[in-house]
Each structure stands twice: as C-alpha cells, then as structure tokens.
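Listing 4. Sequential folding, example run.
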Amino acid sequence: MVGKKTLRQLDMKHNIIIFRPYAFRVGQKIHIEDGSRRGDWEVIGVTERKVKLRCPISQREFEWDCFCYFVEEQNGVEWPHISKGEKKV
C-alpha cells in the first residue's frame, strides 16, 4: 500500500490536466483571454522569474512575476504521478 491507496488504485488510468510555466520569448505578441491582465501584449523582457509586457495601444509597460501556464489535457494517464525516482510500494 502507498498511503491508503492500493497498487491497483495507483495503476488506474485517468484524464488529467497538465500545467507548465510558459517560456516567454522577447518579441512574442500574446493575447491573455481573461482576468485582470486580459488583452493584447508584446513581450519585451524575460528573466527566470519575471516577464515584462507592453500594451500595444497605450505603450504602458508592466513587469510581473511569471504567471502564464501552458495547459494540456491528456487521456489515459496514470494518476497520481509517480516520479521516476519514486517506487510504488
């Protein structure tokens, strides 16, 4: 058993959503569809932790902690994930 789950429960296939931080590149033109930052932006600066965007209309610039994620849906995936170094007990 792993925690309170049996191996059989861990081997079941599920549909899951994958979130990965999006790797912005300077010069990209992006559109944020919803939320307080919604609208069109140009990526004008990127560090490991920050992204700097410019509004193409007002030319105002903002620097924010990285906040966008690429989302992918996968079917038939083992869940919960067992990292490569972990062993099922």
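-- end of first protein; second protein begins --
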Amino acid sequence: MTTQIGVPGFDFEIVSFDALEDAPDGGAMNIVDPGESFQMRLRFTGSGAMWTNLEKLELHYHVRYYADGIGITDEINLGEFFGNLTLGGGIYEATKAVSIANPGVYKCAATIYFFTPGHGQFTGLLGFSDDLVVMVHPHEE
C-alpha cells in the first residue's frame, strides 16, 4: 500500500484495499458472477501534528476505484467515494458498491487524494493501491 507524502510533519498510510461480499458484515472475496454487486473498500489512517490539523479542518477526501482487465477485457472506472476527515477519526473506510459485467480477470486499483472545496486538491498527498485481483466468472459458486 503506497502513499506519497510531499508535506512533512505527518504519516499517511493505506491500511487495506479489498473486495467484500455485498452484504452486512460481508467477507472478503475475489471471485464474483458477471454483474454481481460487491463492495470495494479502501481503509486508511494518518498520524502526527499535521494530520491532526487536517482532521480539525475536516479536509475532504476523494477515492476512485478502477479495474483493469488482464488480456482482452477492458479498463473500467468502478466509481468514487467522497468523505471528510474528522478529529480523532482513527481508521477511515471508503466503501463503494460496484459490479463488473464482463467475465475475465481484473487488476483493481484505488486512488485517494485530499481537497478543500473551492480551493482544489491539497497538493503533496496521494495514496494508491493496486494489489487486488478479482475474477469475474459465471460459475463462481
């Protein structure tokens, strides 16, 4: 899990990136039926005085999810999630219901950046993960 910090004074870490069953307390999964809804989840956290200040400002964050087909399948924009930091937020979770229609194997990725409405992206802070593989197969059970 990679983060890019161009601003000194805090740590920012992606804790996990996974696919979950689309059900309350859904467990991890990597094989789904075509068109079946499932959850993409990115979890992240931060620490340090600068991070605390960003939480106090309730800085906004934007997560985007992608699936890149391996072989003959296409790249897909799976959607996005918006949220806000909150003071003492701990581990933040950005979860989005998604589906992939075409059978194949997909390398999934998530990016996260921070912004202030009306002022644009908070530069120097980027997170991304691309270590999740999902197989879409019509007989996954």
